[in-house]
Amino acid sequence: MARTTSAWRYAGEHAAGPAPSGNGLFRTKTVEQSIRDTEEPEHALKKSLSALDLTVFGVGVVIGTGIFVLTGKVAKETAGPATALAFVVAGVVCALAALCYAEFASTVPVAGSAYTFSYASLGELVAWIIGWDLVLEFALGTAVVAVGWSGYVRSLLDNAGWHLPDVLAGPDVADGFGFDILAFALVLVLTVILVLGMKLSARVTTVVVAVKIAVVLIVIIAGLFFIDTGNYSPFIPPAEPQPSGSGFDAPLVQLIFGYAPTNFGVMGIFTAASIVFFAFIGFDVVATAAEETKLPQRDMPRGILASLLICTVLYVAVSIVVTGMQHYTELSVSAPLADAFKAVGHPFYAGVISFGAAVGLTTVCMILLLGQTRVFFAMSRDGLLPRFFSKTHPRFHTPYRPTILLGVIIAVVAGVTSINELATLVNIGTLFAFVVVALGVIVLRRTRPDLHRAFRTPWVPLVPIASVAASVWLMLNLPAETWLRFAVWMVIGVVIYFAYGRSHSRVNRERA
């Protein structure tokens, strides 16, 4: 495979580089070694993505159920018309993390995202923990989204007069055992697409994202004609106490500090931001495709930041339109956009929105699956997972073995499991990754100031510290039960690391 990119030239100019540093659990893998590993023919991924492809991936994974569902829930229960400001606050929090991701992705253009970045800065144990965290985040996220997609498609089929038997509609619908055949089939089809190549995946995603954005723009433009400015009063409703949770259902911040968040009012905007933040989850998946990007030093920052900006603008516009069409106290929680058009006498747009939601979730599912397989591939190439999974397909140059394995497992999980209660694990996993990446930027600036950084996070260490603080605050607003489940998953990961990963690590063997 020809090495024509700046990533390969960088690797050649710094081929020697420093040896892996650190001792024991915190030994690091140098940036130079990470890049050299991508040159091994049997473990190399094909470089075919551009800045546009990355931006499309980012928009494709971020715009999902959040824009179609979350807007109504937050406006009605937490922020009112000021939901638009909550999206801005959440976008700023994500932007802080995005700046850190952009520096790492342009400096270490290797598959694995936060896992690879952590290995280069914070050490092997931290890298393993974040890699294990990302495996959970992306796998569970893929399954959750597949189940959500199945629900939208069943609704469209029902409207057309075609009804699936309850036993094939999933455990949430069936009385007794149920298998969600649609979610199962979706994950398998997307697995095949990912095996066939990144360029094909990019083309499919481009078409689907174009349809999704077109639907969102139709909602915004059509909705402008039905706005009643009286619905914006009051723009920031008076504050009221938020119902307190109890036991493990309560937010961790309440159990530790006794702080109870408020609904509405100025503080309600920040409470809402901690909720709508999760509508942005996924832009970090763009970083997992760094190794398959033609010019990663230039295009990774562009793709990450551009996709985040586009999604923030669309979210703000949709929230302004929907709260203008219908008073926030009357908004639907389950389908706010569709029901808002029904309320103004235009049910046709409700069908268009349902179609857009179903189409949109397809790309979310595929890109989450893409992210997980790349993290798994990077971990196996480093020896922390069996090297069997780090072989790429001789023709398609994709990590077909982990893609097939994980695709089948996730398809089965999506088919037989009701996992809505576990969805918050996706959120805590993402925020944890944000914290690690931000800390990694600070550490690598001190330990490797000599590295060429095509993109530099501004105002270091202030921006990374702000990113850590914002992410930790949102994590503290998650239920204590979510923290407990996350801790159990992490303990399982640590056991696997000491039982297998530590002794099979390539960095460990090279040092020996």
Automatic annotation (TrEMBL):
Signal peptide: none annotated. The chain crosses the membrane at residues 49-70, 82-104, 177-197, 204-227, 264-283, 304-328, 348-371, 400-419, 425-444, 456-476, 482-500. Coiled coil: none annotated. The keyword Transmembrane helix applies. Keywords: Membrane, Transmembrane, Transmembrane helix, Transport. It is found in: Membrane. It is a multi-pass membrane protein. It holds the Pfam family AA_permease_2. PANTHER family: CATIONIC AMINO ACID TRANSPORTER 4 (PTHR43243:SF4), INNER MEMBRANE TRANSPORTER YGJI-RELATED (PTHR43243). This is Amino acid permease.
